[in-house]
Design goal:
The protein has about 375 residues and is an alpha+beta fold. The chain has 19 helices and 11 strands. It has a 7-stranded mixed beta sheet with strand order 3-4-5-2-1-8-9. The chain has a two-stranded antiparallel sheet with strand order 6-7. Helix 12 (about 235-240) packs across helix 14 (about 260-275) and helix 14 packs across helix 16 (about 300-315). It is elongated and about 85 Å long. Bound molecules: adenosine-5'-triphosphate. Adenosine-5'-triphosphate binds near residues 20, 133 and 137.
C-alpha cells in the first residue's frame, strides 16, 4: 500500500500558504487491510478512513462514473487496482489534482504546477461537466485566489457556459448552493465568486434575484459587497450589503429558495427596510432617527445595531449619517428609567417619559450636527 498527500494540501504547500487540512489517498489497499492497520472507517459504503492518531482522512484511490443529472448518480469504484493517476483524474481543477509521495516527490499528471505558476483555474478533463457543483467550487476558488492573481482559464469558462446552457446548473439543490455561497462569502474576494457565476450564466439560474439585481444595477451590488468585505469578516454583514438593493419580495424569494439562515436573513431585512425609507438628502428629524433605530432593534441589541451600521456604511449612506445614528442610539440608551421613577413617574406615564427623554437626546444629537 502507498500513501500520497493530495488536493488542497499539495496546492497550498506549493503556493507557500498555510495548509489547513491534510487529505491522503491510498493506492493498492483493500478496506480490510486499512481496518487491520488500525484505521477507522468513515461511513459504511464510502472508502474513506481516519488515521488512528492524526485523525487525518485517508481515502482509497477511486474512480467515479456518472449516470444521472446534477451531482447525483455517481458510481464510485474503489479497488486496489485503481491507480493514483485515475484518482487524480476525477478531481475538478488541475491545481487540486496533484499528489505528493511520502518521500516528497510531486505527482502532477495534469499540469497543476504550471497552472499554479500561470495563476489559472483549469479543469482536469471534460468529465468536469458531470458535476455542476464544480462550477460553484471554481467560482469559490476564484474568490479565494483572486488576490494572488488567479483567473478562470478561458476554456474552463467556456465549458462552464456550455454546462449552464445545457441545463446542468438547474440540478443544483438549494442547500449546496447556499453552502458554497456561504463559504465564498468567507473568502478574501467574495465579489469574484458572484462575478464568475454571472460570467458563465449560472447566477441567473441558481440565484435569479441577484442575477436580476446585477441586470438593474450593474456593478453596484459588488461594490457594496467589496466595501462590506473591507469592514467585516462576517457572512451576514457581507450578504446583507450584497442584497441591499433587492426589494422585500425578491429578498424573501431568495431567502426561501436558498434556505438562508436566520442571522443573514434578519440583518438583510433590517438594513434593507431602513434603506428603502432612508431620507437620502433631507436632514432627518429626531422622530425619523428614532424610527430607524427602533427598527434596527437598537435599544435592546447594540451589537446588532452596529452590524446594521456596517451594512449601511458599505452601501454608502455616508459616514456622517452612520456616526449620527450611532451617537443618537448611544445617547438615547443612557436615559435612566430609575431616575424618572424617582421623579414620581410610573405606569404608562413612565413609558411616555422615557420615550420623551430619548427623543430629546436624539434631538440634541441631530441639532448638534
Ligand atoms: P479547501 O482548502 O477549501 O479545503 P480543498 O481543495 O482541500 O480546499 P475539499 O473540498 O476539501 O477542497 O476537497 C478536497 C479535494 O477533493 C479537492 O482538492 C479536489 O481535488 C477534490 N474535490 C472535492 N470536491 C470535488 C468535486 N465536486 N469534484 C471534483 N473534485 C472534487
Amino acid at each position: 500500500m502507498k500513501q500520497y498527500l493530495v488536493g488542497g494540501a499539495v496546492r497550498d504547500e506549493l503556493l507557500g500558504i498555510p495548509v489547513k487540512d491534510r487529505d491522503w489517498v491510498v493506492v493498492g489497499a483493500t478496506p480490510q487491510e486499512m481496518l487491520d492497520a488500525g484505521y477507522k472507517q468513515v461511513g459504511a459504503d464510502f472508502p474513506v478512513f481516519l488515521h488512528p492518531e492524526t485523525n487525518e482522512e485517508y481515502a482509497l484511490a477511486r474512480t467515479e462514473r456518472k449516470q444521472g443529472h446534477g451531482y447525483h448518480g455517481f458510481t464510485v469504484h474503489a479497488s486496489p487496482d485503481v491507480t493514483l493517476e485515475e484518482d487524480l483524474q476525477r478531481r475538478d481543477l488541475t491545481i487540486n489534482a496533484m499528489a505528493k509521495s511520502v518521500d516528497g516527490a510531486v505527482v502532477d499528471p495534469f499540469g497543476g504546477r504550471e497552472d499554479l505558476e500561470a495563476r489559472l483555474l483549469r479543469h482536469v478533463s471534460s468529465a468536469f461537466s458531470e458535476d455542476p457543483l464544480r462550477i460553484l467550487r471554481t467560482a469559490r476558488f476564484a474568490a479565494r485566489f483572486a488576490p494572488l492573481g488567479f483567473q478562470v482559464a478561458e476554456d474552463t469558462m467556456a465549458l462552464m457556459k456550455r454546462m449552464v446552457a445545457e441545463g446542468e446548473a438547474d440540478h443544483l439543490v438549494a442547500e449546496r448552493v447556499w453552502q458554497e455561497t456561504c463559504r465564498a462569502l468567507h473568502e478574501k474576494a467574495p465579489a469574484v465568486y458572484f462575478e464568475v457565476l454571472d460570467a458563465c450564466g449560472a447566477l441567473a439560474v441558481v440565484m435569479p434575484e441577484i442575477g436580476a439585481l446585477f441586470g438593474r444595477e450593474g456593478r453596484e451590488p459588488l461594490d457594496h459587497l467589496e466595501k462590506a468585505t473591507e469592514r467585516s469578516d462576517d457572512t451576514d454583514v457581507r450578504f446583507a450589503a450584497l442584497v441591499s438593493g433587492l426589494d422585500s419580495g425578491e429578498r424573501e424569494a431568495l431567502n426561501s429558495r436558498m434556505k438562508v439562515p436566520n442571522d443573514c436573513k434578519e440583518l438583510a431585512a433590517a438594513s434593507g427596510s431602513l434603506l428603502e425609507r432612508f431620507p437620502a438628502d433631507d436632514n432627518p428629524s429626531a422622530e425619523q432617527i428614532q424610527a430607524l433605530i427602533d427598527e434596527g432593534d437598537g435599544w435592546r441589541r447594540p451589537e446588532r445595531f452596529e452590524r446594521i451600521l456596517l451594512v449601511l456604511e458599505s452601501v454608502g449612506i455616508g459616514a456622517d449619517w452612520t456616526t449620527m445614528l450611532a451617537e443618537a442610539r448611544y445617547q438615547a440608551s443612557q436615559v435612566d428609567p430609575k431616575a424618572l421613577m424617582a421623579e414620581g413617574y410610573k405606569g404608562k406615564a413612565l413609558g411616555q417619559a422615557i420615550q420623551r427623554e430619548r427623543l430629546r437626546c436624539i434631538h440634541d444629537v441631530v441639532v448638534s450636527k
